[in-house]
Amino acid sequence: MGLVTLRQCLQEAERADYGVGAFNVNNMEQVQGIMMAARQARSPVILQASRGALKYTNFVYLKHLLQAALEENPDIPVVIHLDHGDSLETVKTAISLGFSSVMIDGSHLEFEDNVALTRSVVEYAHDHGVSVEAELGTLGGIEEDVQGTVKLTDPAQAEIFVERTGCDALAVAIGTSHGAYKFKAEPKLALDLIPEIYRRVRIPLVMHGSSSVPVELVEEVNRFGGSLAGSKGVPVESIQRAIQLGVRKINVDTDIRLAVTATIRRFFAEQPAKFDPREYLGPAREAIARVVRSRMEAFGSAGHAGDYQPITLAEMRERYRSGQP
Length: 325
Ligand SMILES: O=C(CO)COP(=O)(O)O
Ligand SMILES: O=C[C@H](O)COP(=O)(O)O
Ligand SMILES: [Zn+2]
Ligand SMILES: [Zn+2]
Known about the structure:
One of its GO terms (molecular function) is fructose-bisphosphate aldolase activity. 48% of the residues lie in helices and 14% in strands.
């Protein structure tokens, strides 16, 4: 298998009716833990890097970590994706590093500016065979506008947006937000928007801010000196319902952060005399694999690694050029 584009990965997910987890990476142990899970679950996987990750790893280390993931797992379909790209320049950098998919996040812009930015990225990325995820509507958390309100995705506007931009997948705002504090009371998502948006746009939908913030991880972090009072995530059952309605890419970063933090806090509390990083980074890697494997099974992607052969970027470029991607 190896490198696949987001377009092919999500088309196959539509065909076999499952969702694919998109997991953020910043270091070796995260990449290894996620790929351990993909091998164990025999699941396609999306490895995604934000601008923060590109900066943290000085680009070149990330490039080779992602190449290592492909080299070590030739029988697993892997999408290498830029998360929350902010400009055509960042997109070009990601594509130069070998990414097979990019997100351009113009959700905070006025509609016409989002269309223009997304269109410019689609033209460039498709000319390299690379898929494009765009976003319409704003999440809570890091994307709240100055009034602190979020704009849910409007189905009619989404139809026009996708028609005018030609993006391959659309991130929608249905009430999720990034981080560990997604809801002040009981989780409430506008799941009813999904089928209406999907019916109109007819491309796979993306759910950001989809970590579940498992209570057992929060309790372990807090037991060993952490402070995560009031944290609340998206119930896995809500994600499974969203997948049934048209969401095919599910973004998870916070749950991986919590798995690492809980493991390392426990280690330092229980083994204060130890100081070899391999003795806590290794177990952290296994904790990542446990969380990610559980999501692959919940999203339904487990067992689908062998379903299809990858279409190369060169072939995708020709398909885009001929209008039949
Ligand atoms: O949306 C995300 C990455 O783009 C991650 O969301 P979480 O913070 O819920 O993990
Ligand atoms: O968009 C949110 C992702 O979790 C990435 O987070 P980051 O920008 O801190 O790397
Ligand atoms: Zn956004
Ligand atoms: Zn996100």
